[in-house]
Amino acid sequence: MSMQVESSRVPRPVRTGARLENVRYDIRGALARRALELEAGGRQIAKLNIGNPSVFGFTVPDHVRAAIEHNLVSSEAYCHQKGLVEAREAIVAHQHANGIAQAHVDRVFIGNGVSELIDLALRALLDEGDEVLLPSPDYPLWSAATTLNGGRPVYYACPAEREHTPDAAEIEALITQRTRAIVLVNPNNPTGAIYPRALLEQIVHLADKHGLVLLSDEIYDEIVYDHAEFTPLAKLAGEVPCLSFDGLSKVQRACGYRVGWLSLTGARAAIAPLEAALDLLASLRLCANVAGQHAIAPSLEGPQTIAQLVAPGGRLYETRRAVIDACATSRYLDLVAPKGAMYAFPSVCVERLPQFDDETFALDLLESESVLIVPGRGFNCVPRNHFRITLLPLATQMREVFARIERVLARMAEATPQRQVA
């Protein structure tokens, strides 16, 4: 018979890890929680905060889904910590076809989404106080994983004035004796920028010169618009250690499958310790979701269904065009047209709204117009006049969203003393 101990003392709050104090993920943060409260009260919220295609009616290609269904019974045991051999072979063949000659099946690691692999990679690389060069704006998981693994994020600027691309000289000026890696998100989330080949070559040169590791998040590699050219970083890196991250979440619209991979390339002697560290960490979590891995080969070898969505007339393309048009006709918004990915990162003209604050605006938009966005601050963006939206709604829905955005900005303008505009 168990006895319950009674006490009049109120337990103290449980102390959490100090590293969490510097970690944020506003994509699913306070605004998203408030949106849930409003929904519970009967409000219909236009959720543009997260790139989750299925919620907007996109579906996984039939041949990809069928592969999981067919192999479900054979997915009940652990597999090798690096992943199914046939899945890794398909990844390597795909990389070879894209000019990445150094890709090898033994240096491919499959994970529960790219998110898990980012964490494993930084855990393998970092000692306390090591620095990682990250884009600003960035995808906030990179900053969070750096901090949680004892590192320090150091940001290189990707301003709208440069079409959200970095400057190699500015990156080099940030390198110190504690710098371990340079992170690229290309095509970029949140801005939609695609980095030119010449810029990528300059960044590879920096990594080679200073003995740094390249980490390239390429999950949106096939989501490109208007004939923009995406170049895999590992194709240019050669002997320089490079980790390339990809997966099924976006191109195959299979976020819930949680299937991602990283491919480690570079001079064999240089990357051997990192390969061993990744193998150890992969072993500690036993293996990635086995059922989802059966979707990799048909995804990479079968019919490619993303092209029709990003071409003129395709759903992503037409929603992107609706956003571009809305920003062009707005009295308050500017936009660097996204060349890739499934987001746009508009900015608010500070000449017309000099006291604009991205977080205040996002809350006002949610409360008054039932539209959920992510303020630019959530992507470690220094200017306070940006916000991110997904391109997943229908074009008609997006036009209505921007009508609501314009209403809020107009109300803010009416309530704000204006600067004299020349």
CATH homologous group name of the largest domain? Type I PLP-dependent aspartate aminotransferase-like (Major domain)
Query: Portion of residues in helices?
Result: 25-40%
The CATH architecture of the largest domain would be 3-Layer(aba) Sandwich
Structural class: alpha/beta
Provide the residue-averaged pLDDT. Answer: 95
Can you count the helices? 15
**What is the fold named in CATH at topology level of the largest domain?**
Aspartate Aminotransferase, domain 2
Q: What strand order characterises the main sheet?
A: 2-8-7-6-5-3-4
Oligomer: single chain
Largest sheet: 7 strands, mixed
CATH class of the largest domain: Alpha Beta
- Tell me the domain tally: 2
Give the termini distance in whole angstroms: 82 Å
Radius of gyration: 23 Å
Got a strand count? Answer: 14
Give the overall shape.
globular
